[in-house]
Write a structure and sequence with these properties.
Elements lengths: L7 H14 L17 H10 L9 H26 L4 H13 L1 H7 L6 H19 L9 H17 L4 H13 L6 H29 L1 H21 L11 H28 L8 H21 L11 H42 L5 H9 L13 H4 L12 H17 L7 H34 L2 H17 L11 H22 L9 H23 L6 H17 L5 E4 L3 H6 L4 E4 L7 H9 L2 H7 L4 E4 L1 H6 L3 H4 L4 E6 L7 E5 L4
Parallel strand pairs: 1-2, 1-3
Antiparallel strand pairs: 3-5, 4-5
Length: about 650
């Protein structure tokens, strides 16, 4: 059972829920009020952990069932969404992949985190949104339908707060009725993004890009938002198909010059306001030059996708605004009001109860990035900065990138390429090749599969994912975890289902007497069931020897042996220990599940005085973390007396904490 719960963060929920039900309020240690959790999963935890008064393991068993039910519900909703648009076989396989594939299940369902309820509400929102967006032409969404989606959107945010980006983008797609994006716009967005990254790389090199990612992503966001607008009003998307090349280059020049002025002013202002940490004129100039060249080439060679011009873009925009502004405003209010009420109530409760509008845990993780020697940051590479980390169960797209990187490493070994960066270079080449192949497949059969991606809101999910990745990278957020990337995993599963639709449609051609898709679906289903059962048996075997059973809690028993009842024990983490330890209190030292006052003490260098006031009696952790890494080295300088090493999952050492006399 406890192997299922091998993530310490999950026990933050359970211990706080236990304390709330005992009448102590939202606190991890019964001393400091804490809000380092997502609200909807805390509601679920409160409904389950009243059982802990009977037996500490009982609610953990019940929560396994609850998580599994959310996972099954997500699979059912995903199937219903996919089958409206895709081949039935593709819908079945897509739903089974989500519910059974070990890498997904391990992140979305196992370990007792909020990811299971987050996935459920994301898919529920997508199901409703795709239903209403794909209504027949002329049949409008009612304000009531938008309000229902807004309510689901609000619950989606409360299930995991960074879902706000996806919920917002889905709202834009619904209100603007975006059912397609012209090919030229897509290529322009790719060119604009590439020019920004290329400009930074030319100016600073790959290491400079990694070090200045906090400034790169804001520039990327500004460019992607501003430049297409100027391209539109320069008639690049409404020009005549027989326009001369000279006139096309002239339009690109005008759009580039105007967007350069706006972009320069915004980026300079962001730098002066200390939103970004670096502003480079040469980077902006490189970006303009590369962007101009790429966009000009795109518009010179891709002419046939642009209809003949009938009106100037200002007139087109004016008519569109006049025709739609009323529906957009009323629809926006209907969709946004439930979200505003739910989110507003949540942040107001936070402020009144905890003294801060947002969870302390997120603020702590942003603060960690300001410290030079913290264990909570990962060594970044150019690939990871771009959100393409190949590490399994770590990066946003690791469900795909980890497999691609494995293939790249295998190729590098087979060809005996001695370059230390060989695997990364081959990984990049494979990634680009697969993206190109994907676009080619999307354009086959007159864009049939491309239309299905829009019908399933894949572009909205991609944009929401990219904004989420940008937020974490640009704001210096440290220590992201695998369960942050549920939207990205869902997006990959839906894309895979769309590709399967193409395959099943191909092998089930009407002229063939036998449809092979049922056999393929059955084969894939059996394979998924087998891999899932094997994974579950490895994770939580039915039979565990008595010797092994005692090992799970042996560490906690030893901590109890070396400490007296009533002791306050500081830990960097401590969720599982806090839940099972008896008659002792665990104080969370990293701040993720501690108070706003403690976070203020960490930032102002007064954490030692804060801990003295509790008072703290012991500290349990790794010596390097406590004595050499930020911020603990200053907090515990000349304060710890080693008691001894305790063998356990984390290999921690127990220290006696001494206060200055």
């Amino acid at each position: 059972m406890l192997r299922w719960y091998n993530i310490d963060d999950a026990f933050y929920y359970y211990k706080v829920a236990q304390n709330v039900l005992m009448g102590h309020g939202f606190t991890f240690d019964q001393i400091n009020l804490a809000n380092g959790f997502h609200p909807l999963w805390m509601v679920v935890s409160l409904g389950v952990f009243w059982l802990s008064k009977f037996n500490l393991l009982l609610p953990l068993r019940v929560l396994v069932i609850v998580s599994a039910l959310f996972n099954a519900g997500t699979g059912v909703l995903l199937y219903r969404m996919l089958k409206r648009v895709l081949h039935p076989g593709a819908a079945i396989v897509g739903a089974l992949v989500w519910t059974l594939y070990p890498s997904i299940f391990d992140t979305s369902t196992a370990h007792g985190m909020e990811s299971s309820i987050s996935a459920f509400f994301i898919v529920l929102l997508l199901l409703l949104a795709t239903k209403y967006l794909n209504k027949p032409e002329g049949e409008l969404m009612t304000l009531g339908e938008l309000a229902v989606m807004g309510l689901v959107g609000g619950l989606t945010i409360l299930s995991r707060l960074d879902n706000v980006f996806l919920v917002g983008i889905i709202g834009v797609f619904l209100l603007m009725k975006i059912k397609k994006i012209p090919t030229l716009v897509i290529f322009d967005l790719i060119a604009v993004s590439f020019s920004v990254l290329a400009a930074w790389t030319i100016r600073l090199g790959s290491e400079g890009v990694v070090l200045n990612s906090y400034s790169i992503y804001p520039m990327l966001a500004v460019s992607v938002l501003i430049k297409p607008v100027f391209f539109f009003f320069s008639s690049l998307y409404t020009r005549s198909t027989n326009e001369t090349g000279f006139m096309t280059i002239f339009r690109v020049s005008i759009a580039t010059a105007l967007s350069f002025g706006f972009e320069y002013a915004i980026l300079f202002g962001m730098y002066k306001l200390e939103i970004t940490r670096m502003f480079s004129k040469s980077v902006v100039i490189f970006d303009v030059a590369i962007g101009f060249l790429l966009v000009a080439l795109i518009h010179l060679f891709i002419k046939n996708t642009v209809p003949s011009a009938r009106e100037n873009p200002f007139s087109l925009f004016g008519k569109w605004a006049k025709r739609n502004w009323n529906n957009i405003i009323l629809g926006g209010l209907s969709y946004g009001f439930p979200i505003a009420v739910l989110l507003g109530s949540y942040v107001t409760f936070n402020k009144l109860t905890f003294g801060t509008f947002t969870p302390i845990s997120g603020q702590i993780k942003h603060w960690w990035s300001t410290m030079p020697n913290t264990i909570y940051s990962h060594a970044n590479t150019l690939i990871s900065v771009l959100g393409l980390s190949p590490a399994d169960n770590y990066g946003p797209w690791s469900l795909a990138t980890s497999k691609i990187y494995t293939a790249a490493s295998s190729i590098a070994k087979r060809i005996s390429w001695q370059n230390p960066q060989a695997s990364q270079l081959i990984f990049g080449i494979l990634l680009i090749a697969l993206v190109i192949l994907f676009f080619i497949i999307m354009r086959t059969e007159n864009g049939r599969l491309a239309r299905k991606t829009f019908a399933l809101l894949v572009p909205a999910a991609l944009i929401g994912s990219l904004i989420q990745i940008t937020y974490y990278t640009a704001t210096g957020y440290s220590h992201t975890r695998g369960w942050y990337w549920i939207t990205e995993m869902l997006t990959l599963v839906v894309i895979g289902s769309i590709l399967l639709d193409g395959l099943f449609t191909l092998i089930d051609k009407p002229k063939r007497r036998i449809n092979f898709s049922p056999f393929l679906v059955s084969l894939l289903a059996v394979s998924l069931v087998y891999s899932h059962i094997s994974y579950i048996l490895r994770l939580s075997p039915f039979h565990v020897s008595e010797e092994k059973q005692s090992e799970y809690l042996q560490e906690i028993k030893e901590v109890e042996f070396y400490t007296e009842e009533g002791a306050n024990i500081g830990m960097t983490g401590g969720g599982m220990v806090a839940y099972f330890i008896e008659n002792r209190t665990i104080i969370n030292l990293d701040g993720l599940i501690n108070s706003a006052e403690y976070f203020h003490a960490l930032k102002t260098g007064t954490a030692t005085a804060f801990l003295d006031k509790l008072p703290l009696n012991y500290v349990y952790g790794k010596p390097y973390v406590l004595l050499e890494s930020d911020p603990y080295d200053e907090i515990f300088q000349n304060r710890l007396i080693e008691i001894g090493f305790i063998r356990g999952f984390e290999q921690f050492t127990l220290f006696k904490y001494q206060m200055n006399q």
